């Protein structure tokens, strides 16, 4: 068996292992979810609401299992039947510039993926979310969002891809450090300015109106020495009833956004306690450490790419006798999935720890925050029909925040 055949076998095995592991973990989580309502859970849900939350979880579980099966079969078919190499050959017959072939190849895959995912997104939004009372989006808004997201993905992704492919063409195996530096700079730009540039394309951000809440927020930020650049209210209610808040930026460019649904459902004290939690991420340097860890992950990825992408067997494993950057990169990421999973586990573990620390910061700096945060989290969970009993393995793989009952128990320690 040749090296390319072994790589193809490895790719297929990794796709199957990833699929099988995902199915098992989701099944364990579904079984773990269906437990009697505990005394702690009864502080969040009444029996009718709890039954609704379990039905919501089951509906999402079944749909995810179906969509995962379809996507896995599609990817395996494209790999085994030579769909990727066929597309590469078609482009080579029509184009004679390797960089242009790479950009068009990835652009076509992005376009196909977006179109293929539309039915699933539509069903999730207008059937599942609608059935359980979350959806507020219109069909027009849904398709507008999809088109905007596609255009942004193509505009940003393909420009960045072109730059990385050009660096690889010029430097070959030494390309990875320059390409990583470019990617890190782009990530920093997006981290600081991305919210200001792209979020207004989807939502209206207006300054939080003068009043009790704005005064309370500004007083708290001033006492904590938190230089708040902008405090926004976002019209999240035009898409969903779910509650949330967000923090973005670093240095002097710091933005806090509050969903209008959150402002509607939480009291002033509860909202400030949630905001104090977000400030805690900044004060405890979580923003910087997680950004640094993210760039460390990309450094690992690019260093491995620099080591492996020059191997012509990567392209040959996907059916092409002509080595190419895009086919080698595609084969690399399919083989990279175990490392990606490991990095995700580490990232989620750090993130869950950070959430506990941010809760503690809220308690330490805002009077009454222990109870206000406790009540706010209960409301957030109730409004989202949160799973009260996720399986520990599912939590490790998918949760960037601690399970809600663990978080509530920690608040009362």
Characterization of this structure:
With 413 residues, the protein is mainly alpha-helical. Helices cover 73% and strands 5% of the residues. It has 16 helices and four strands. Strands 1-2-4-3 form a four-stranded mixed sheet, with helices on both faces. Strand 3 and strand 4 form a beta hairpin. The mean pLDDT is 92.
Question: How are the elements arranged and paired?
Answer:
Blueprint: H1 3-33, H2 47-80, H3 83-94, H4 98-131, H5 139-171, H6 175-198, E1 205-207, H7 212-223, E2 230-234, E3 245-250, E4 253-259, H8 260-265, H9 268-283, H10 286-308, H11 313-317, H12 325-335, H13 337-365, H14 369-384, H15 392-398, H16 404-411
Parallel strand pairs: 2-4
Antiparallel strand pairs: 1-2, 3-4
Helix pairs in contact: 1-2, 3-4, 4-5, 5-6, 6-10, 7-9, 9-13, 9-14, 10-13
Distance between the termini: 59 Å
Mean pLDDT: 92
Strand content: 5-15%
Main sheet summary: 4 strands, mixed
What general outline do the C-alpha atoms trace? globular
Counting DSSP H or I runs of 4 or more residues, the number of helices is 16
How many strand elements? 4
Helix content: over 70%
Which ranges are low-confidence, i.e. pLDDT below 50, for 5 or more consecutive residues? Answer: none
Helix-strand category: mainly alpha
The side-by-side strand order for the widest beta sheet comes to 1-2-4-3
Query: Could you spell the SSE succession in H and E letters?
Result: HHHHHHEHEEEHHHHHHHHH
Please state the CA-atom Rg, rounded to the nearest Å. 23 Å
């Amino acid at each position: 068996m040749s090296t390319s055949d072994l790589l193809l076998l490895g790719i297929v095995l990794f796709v199957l292992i990833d699929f099988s592991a995902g199915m098992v973990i989701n099944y364990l989580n579904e079984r773990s979810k269906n437990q009697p309502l505990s005394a702690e859970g009864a502080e969040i849900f009444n029996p009718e609401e709890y039954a609704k939350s379990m039905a919501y979880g089951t509906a999402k579980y079944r749909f995810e299992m179906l969509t995962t099966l379809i996507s896995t079969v599609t990817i395996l078919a494209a790999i085994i039947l030579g769909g990727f190499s066929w597309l590469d050959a078609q482009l080579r017959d029509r184009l004679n510039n390797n960089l242009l072939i790479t950009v068009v190849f990835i652009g076509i895959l992005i376009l196909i993926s977006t179109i293929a995912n539309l039915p699933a997104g539509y069903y999730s939004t207008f059937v599942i979310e609608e059935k359980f009372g979350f959806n507020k989006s219109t069909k027009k808004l849904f398709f507008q969002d999809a088109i905007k997201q596609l255009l942004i993905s193509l505009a940003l992704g393909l420009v960045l891809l072109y730059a990385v492919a050009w660096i690889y063409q010029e430097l070959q195996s030494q390309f990875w450090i320059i390409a990583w530096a470019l990617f890190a700079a782009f990530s920093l730009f997006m981290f600081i300015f991305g919210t200001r540039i792209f979020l207004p394309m989807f939502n209206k951000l207006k300054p939080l109106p003068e009043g009790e809440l704005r005064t309370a927020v500004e007083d708290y930020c001033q006492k904590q020495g938190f230089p708040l650049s902008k405090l926004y209210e976002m019209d999240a209610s035009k898409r969903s009833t779910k509650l949330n808040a967000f923090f973005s930026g670093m240095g002097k460019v710091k933005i806090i956004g509050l969903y209008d649904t959150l402002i509607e459902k939480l009291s002033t004290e509860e909202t400030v306690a949630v905001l104090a939690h977000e400030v805690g991420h900044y004060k405890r340097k979580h923003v910087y450490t997680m950004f640094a860890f993210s760039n460390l992950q990309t450094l690992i990825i690019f260093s491995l790419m620099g080591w492996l992408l020059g191997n012509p067997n990567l392209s040959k494993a996907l059916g092409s006798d002509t080595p190419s950057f895009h086919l080698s990169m595609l084969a690399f990421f399919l083989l990279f999935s175990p490392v990606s999973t490991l990095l995700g586990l580490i990232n989620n573990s750090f993130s869950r720890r950070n959430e506990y620390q941010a809760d503690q910061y809220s308690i330490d700096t805002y009077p009454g925050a222990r109870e206000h945060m406790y009540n706010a989290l209960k409301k957030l969970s109730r409004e989202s029909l949160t799973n009260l009993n996720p399986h520990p393995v599912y939590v490790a793989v998918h949760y960037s925040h601690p399970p809600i009952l663990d978080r509530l128990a920690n608040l009362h320690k």
